[in-house]
Amino acid sequence: xxxxxxxxxxxxxxxxxxxxxxxxxxxxxxxxxxxxxxxxxxxxxxxxxxxxxxxxxxxxxxxxxxxxxxxxxxxxxxxxxxxxxxxxxxxxxxxxxxxxxxxxxxxxxxxxxxxxxxxxxxxxxxxxxxxxxxxxxxxxxxxxxxxxxxxxxxxxxxxxxxxxxxxxxxxxxxxxxxxxxxxxxxxxxxxxxxxxxxxxxxxxxxxxxxxxxxxxxxxxxxxxxxxxxxxxxxxxxxxxxxxxxxxxxxxxxxxxxxxxxxxxxxxxxxxxxxxxxxxxxxxxxxxxxxxxxxxxxxxxxxxxxxxxxxxx
Length: 312
Hints:
By secondary structure, the protein is α/β, with parallel strands linked by helices. The protein contains 12 helices and 11 strands.
């Protein structure tokens, strides 16, 4: 396994919450002989099937879950040359801020990290952090397969949890945030990015959107360090235009052609966000929001919440 000794010692069963021990090519609960989880190519599969959309057999069979792992050369080429309609104006700056707040040797959990998230290169390159990257899909950066509804680590294990562009894809976002709160140490940091004005992506695995205040309420058991739009109205407009064109598709092939046409004729709208991103109107029309917070034992009340409205 790629997990450090510290991470291995803090693993627990997502079903029984019991400590786990390594036994050949599997992890086994110390309390229950039938509570076993496979390790595939060094990656533990710690899924509680009762609370997850995924089954352990999905990973044993090598089935694609949320991410298509084998992409054709043509598709990879298209991803490189077709202009993107998306732009994240806050992630890199926000991660730099978090890095400065973390101790040397900080323990970091990345949820939804089978591939490095936008702006996260410095986190992964920092040799002084103990970082574990998890997802419900295999990928080049996945250290462990788990579902955020049942994070398989002990209480107070981490100094920081990052959940970037994930909460829209889970069935119960509030439960996932509760789990984040549980595994964080006292005063531990959380960083989340979640879309608002974005169309369906990742197909059947897309469930929820949040306004700025809705996103803040989700993290009401955290003290807010910073929050706001991470992708602005220009990006949201480009997405809407592309999906408008895509609505005329009559087949998978025609959909790809229309998306290509949409991206090539709308990508420039995202550049308006350099000017718009921090304006009050962007809080009402953002493509997505970020929240950076610190674990707290207090809750922000709903009356306090609405006083934080920053839109027009």
